[in-house]
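Project standup — Tuesday

K.O.: blocked on the structure for the chain from last sprint. Re-posting the sequence here as requested.
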Amino acid sequence: MEDNRLKVNIGSLELKNPVLTASGTFGYGTEYEDFLDLSALGGIVVKGTTGERREGNAYPRLAETPSGMINAVGLQNKGVEYFCKEIYPKIKDINPNVIVNVSGSSIEEYCKVASAINDLETIPAIELNISCPNVKKGGMGFGVDRQMAFEVVSEVRKIYKKHLIVKLTPNVTNIVEIAQSVEKAGANSLSLINTVLAMAVDSEKRKPLLSTITGGLSGPAIKPIALRCVWQVSHNVNIPVIGMGGIRNAADAIEFLLVGAKAVEIGTANFINPKISAEITEGLSDYLNRHGIEKITDIIGLI
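H.V.: unblocked you, prediction finished:
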C-alpha cells in the first residue's frame, strides 16, 4: 500500500517515495518484475545509454572485494536509437518515474542522447553521467574538471528541456566545487556518488582481477565516503541531492536523508537481494511509525 508520508519532490520531479534504483544495477526495470512490484518504487534509473552501440570492456570485468565489488563493465548498451525504438515502448507505461542515465565520449554525444530522450513523452528526467570511471574517453573525464563539467552540462541544458540530474564522481579533490559548477550550468539536481576508482589483484596468479586493471568500487565499503560527499554537497548547493553508495537497508537510506539527500538510489544491493528496494521503502514507513514522525521530509538534512 502506498504511504503518502513518503512523498518527496526533487525540484519539479515528484516521487511517491524517496527510493530509486541506481543505473547499471536494475537493467531497464522489467528484468525485476518477477521479484517485486515496480510501482512500489519512487523511480527507476535505467542502465547507461550512449550515442552508439558499445560492447563494453573485455572480460573479466567484475571482482568481488571485502564489503563490495569492483566493476569495469564499460557502459555496454545498444545505443540511443535502439533504446528509443525497442526499449522505450516496453517501459513507457511503468508506474514509477523512469529516468534514463545518459553518457558519452564527447559533448556532442551527450547532446545527441539527451536530445533523443527529450522527445520521449513519459521520461520525465535524465541522469547525466559525467562520473563513470570505466571508459577510456568521456565519462569521469568530464566530471573531474570544474570547467569541463560546466561545459557539458551547459550544452546539454540548451537541448534538454525536462528535469536534468547530474551524477558526480567522488574521485576528485573537491566535490563541492564540481557540484557548484554544475549547478551554475543549469542542473536541476545532483546524484552522488558514483563508484570509487579501485583495483583488485590475484596474488597467486600475480595479475589484476580485471581486464582493465582498475574499475569502480561499490557496495557497503564506500558508504562512509558517500555520506561525507552528500553532506558536503547538500550544504553547499541550492538544488536537491540524491544520495547513493553502499545502501543495503532502511537504516542506511535514512542516514543519507539525515545528511541532506532528498532521495536515495539503491545499487549493488540489488544483486544480492532483488527485492531490497521495496523492502527499504517499507522500512522507511516503519521508521516513521516507530519515531512518531509525520512525514519523511521532516528528517531531511537534520545533520
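K.O.: great, moving the ticket to review. The chain has nine helices and 16 strands. Confidence is low (pLDDT under 50) at residues 134-139.
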